[in-house]
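We treat protein structure as text, and this decision shapes the records that our systems exchange. Below, we set out a record of this kind in full and without editing:

***
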Amino acid sequence: MRQDESPVVGLIVAGIWIATAGPALALVPDDAPTLPPPDPAVYTVVEVDTAQELADACWNLTSNTAIVIAPGTYDLSSTDRDRLTIGRYGAAMISDIQIRGATGDPADVVILGAGMTDPSVQFGFQIFTASDVLIADLSVGSVYYHAVAIQNDQGATRVRLYHLRLFDAGQQIVKGNANPNPGAEDVVIEFCDVFYTAGVPHHPDLGDCYTNGIDALPGRRWIIRDNLIRGIRCQDGSLAGPAILMWGNPSTGPSVDTVVERNTILDSSRGISLGLGSSTEHTGGIVRNNFIRWNPAATYDVDVPIYTTSPGAKVVHNTVLTRGLYGAAVEVRFPIATGVEVRSNLMDAGVSSRDGASPTVADNLTSAHPSWFVDEATGDLHLARTATDPVDLVTVDPDCTLDFDGTARPTGAGLTDIGADEMGEPLFADGFESGGAGAWSRAAPSVS
């Protein structure tokens, strides 16, 4: 089935219509489009400016409520609660909830726990019996388990995490938990900065490092796009989990139809995984237009950037640099991974088929060089003007008609570039952008 990129497809979460597919409006979290304020005709607006007021407002949430948080730092360890709850455990469902930073800048509203190894603050936000939830424009981190936990086992569904800074969680930074039926549904994570400042320590519950950036067990129809995900690694140098992991198990069933697009993933142990250790953990899904770059100076274990065990998955038009730290840029695993396509990716390593997998592998370029990119060292993997090798080589894929920037790829045979970025035409045909001496003249124009 085609993974439609038409901008007309959408849903309403917490009173705001969002496109579930379509062109990007920005490139990085800092450029996220501004959301409209909560409509007072729809929402009861609750303004808070202390940690205890915030904790109380979350605990007492009812449907059609928007909590607006004033600028400041909110120390949850100073409150009488160990997390911010959205919908109480075991209670009746509520819906149409917004939790918003007042200024639109996540740096202005910072919600902190007591640290990754201190259980006095276990979560940032834990969403239980609530649907149509928007959390936007704030920072949350330094907590024992998860910065945001989406408990579909309690009914949480249709959650949107928008323009957030999510960091330093003792286990996964964002976690989706679910009953066997149906799995956390219709979650959108976009324009978020998801990171560890210095890796993950051993967790006191487990005695080792156990983390991922974004992790759903399982998730149905999650969209993860336009995020910066970085530093997903263990402090002891052992192998951390993937930056994005969508999976399942026999009791929960698989994750289904995940879309992972236009993310930048840097300096991490592993990248994007649709499925993980067995052959029944994910079905369908598409991974497109992502930038992934491993740090050649990494002092921690590194694994594959893109991995799937998912039948029917597509891995198309990604730009991936392993920098020699792993032998493959993409791995497909297990015989059940039928119908998998790996096409038009720009990489510095090849595609590996493991344990009986037989994907369709076509039109990939596996000889990418750091000099082909605008600023490879910082993860800006847009094509440099001098990079000609990936340009105008393939025909546009119907499931990837837009590039990393939301720019339409050209139609026609052999007119589309390989990788996540479609190189644009110069603004000036005379070479003005190059700064060459022939690009301009200092002489004043003559006047006749």
